[in-house]
Amino acid sequence: MPLLDAGAVTKLFGRLVAVDRVDLAIDAGEIVGLIGPNGAGKTTLVNLITGIEPPTSGTLVFDGTTLAGLRPAAIARLGIARTFQIAQPFRNMTVRQNVAVPALFRANPAAGVGQALGEAGAILETVGLGPKREFSARALTTPDLRRLELAKALALRPRLLLLDEVMAGLTPAEVDAEIAMLRRVNAQGITLLVIEHVLRAVMGLSHRVVVLHHGRKIADGPPARVVEDPGVIAAYLGNRRPAGRSG
Amino acid sequence: MTPRTLALGALAAAALGVAVAFPAFAGGYYVRLATGIYMFGALASAWNLVGGYTGYPDFGGAAFLGIGAYTTGILMLRAHLPFAAALGAGGALAVLAAVGMGTLLLRLRGHYFAIATLGFMLVLRQVAANLPITGGGSGMNLPIASAFTPFYYWMLGAVVLGALGGALLPRSRAGYAIAAIRENQDAAQVLGIEPLPYKILAYASNALLFGAVGGIYAYWFTFIDPPTVFNIDFSIQAVVMTLLGGPGTALGPVAGAIILKILDTILTNISLFLHNVFFGALVCVLIIFAPRGLAEVLRRRGGIVRAIRTELEDSRV
């Protein structure tokens, strides 16, 4: 049984079909890349999985639990964490306090504030924010804010982690460091769904790549096969000749 | 416990000792003045829980003050309950009302919340003005207390409760939830926090203090009518005092209440006109130069001059 099983998930905004009958199964331990041009429905799909918005139709099942009707906090406590495309820090709290928040509110929370802060300090070491743990979150640079997003998600002790464009705006060297870090996260047994524009990153990291275009899934397979897919090439670069569909 | 926490604790204990002994050596005028300071210190501390820590601009605190005042008055006058029992019932009813109203209103954000709380308070004022049991628009006379020093201690209790709440909250699990909700509610939710119960907790704690102060106030002044207790001025003063002292800090609201009440008394004695101008001007100065209160100004290195310069540079963006 897959860890996350989405069946014909659909989201309408008025008459706009943002997500169109998407089937997506993610197995425990996988790293799945989710790519697609702007407006393809990637972030909407993440919002549906995390309960920020309800799907118009379709089913979402996480480890045997139907997510329909669950509020974001309940879904988080089931073990689904996410990072936001635009970092959402608690600006007037310290970096360490930011990370202590999920440690206090996950399914098996830290016993108290002191323990949560201690745990937060350890997680900050692993993402490279150790020296800045007493900084106010508002003082962080963009790459550091991304690290903070990841640290907060990890403090939730998720089984599935949805990463919404964690590499956008990073330098190539920073991208490489991020890929290495995500591999380490995955090696701890956390399943990853990586939404990304930086194709090099997704291709190098993912076991499997899913492509969305106009809300529809147009490809799903190993990275090497997906990049050759004429439908995917057409979606990214436009048509020179009528494109076939596969996958 | 850091040395700083210990020093602050010792200072607070010493201040409390002086406050407890105060009526023994001070005259009636000063005891009355201090009682008023504690009253507003308690209201400001209460508002700080909702407006400061949670970031919800509540302007309807007087709704709970009125509920506390009228419940205490009605129970003492018509059911002949002793003051303490009537006061307890008033506080409890204020909490109950806050849980009910909070469930509805705390889904709103920003200005909408502010207007809705104000509306709720004004509705209650009309209800109180039209019910037979409250004495309607002509108000209600409570039994006259045999001594007035007890009110000093009741209000002292209220302000200590408020300051204690403000000091303990940020160190607690609930405090982390409330801070996260204030900073970014969407981010808080995906990290496992269900916002509404924590917002209700803050709102109901605020209501408990407003309600208790209302009950003490009613018995202290012996006369209440709808415009006196359902009065937005209580909220506005609490807001200004909190802004002055430092929203989201434990002792800021109390410090704000002490400073403002003393200035208020001095200025009223000099000129009633000057006193009104002063408050308007003070609010403007605070919002421009110290939006996070005196606590923040003191915390910054380089003191007040540097703080003012930073604010001017910030606002040039």
What does this structure look like?
The complex is a heterodimer of chains A (247) and B (317). Chain A is of the alpha/beta class and 247 residues long. Chain A has 9 helices and 10 strands. Chain A has 2 domains: 1-79 and 159-247, P-loop containing nucleotide triphosphate hydrolases (Rossmann fold, 3-Layer(aba) Sandwich); 91-157, no CATH class. In chain A, the strands form 2 sheets. Chain A has a 6-stranded mixed sheet, sandwiched between helices. A 4-stranded antiparallel sheet of chain A has the order 2-1-4-5, with helices on one face. The mean pLDDT of chain A is 91. Chain B has one domain. Chain B contains 15 helices and 2 strands. Classes of the chains: A alpha/beta (247), B mainly alpha (317). At the A-B interface, α2 and α3 of A face α7 and α8 of B.
Query: How much of the residues of chain B is beta strand, in percent?
Result: under 5%
The total count of strands of chain A amounts to 10
- What is the strand arrangement across the widest sheet of chain B? 1-2
CATH architecture of the largest domain in chain A: 3-Layer(aba) Sandwich
Q: Specify Rg of chain B, calculated over alpha carbons.
A: 20 Å
Distance between the termini of chain B: 40 Å
User: Taking all residues together, what is the mean pLDDT of chain A?
Assistant: 91
* Count of extended strands of chain B: 2
CATH class value of the largest domain in chain A:
Alpha Beta
Number of helices of chain B: 15
Helix content of chain A: 25-40%
Give the terminus-to-terminus CA distance of chain A: 22 Å
Shape of chain B: globular
Number of helices of chain A: 9
The greatest inter-chain interface is formed by: A-B, 33 and 20 residues
The multimeric state of the shown protein is heterodimer
The share of residues in helices of chain B is: over 70%
CATH topology of the largest domain in chain A, by name, is Rossmann fold
Number of domains of chain A: 2
SSE series of chain B:
HHHHHEHHHHEHHHHHH
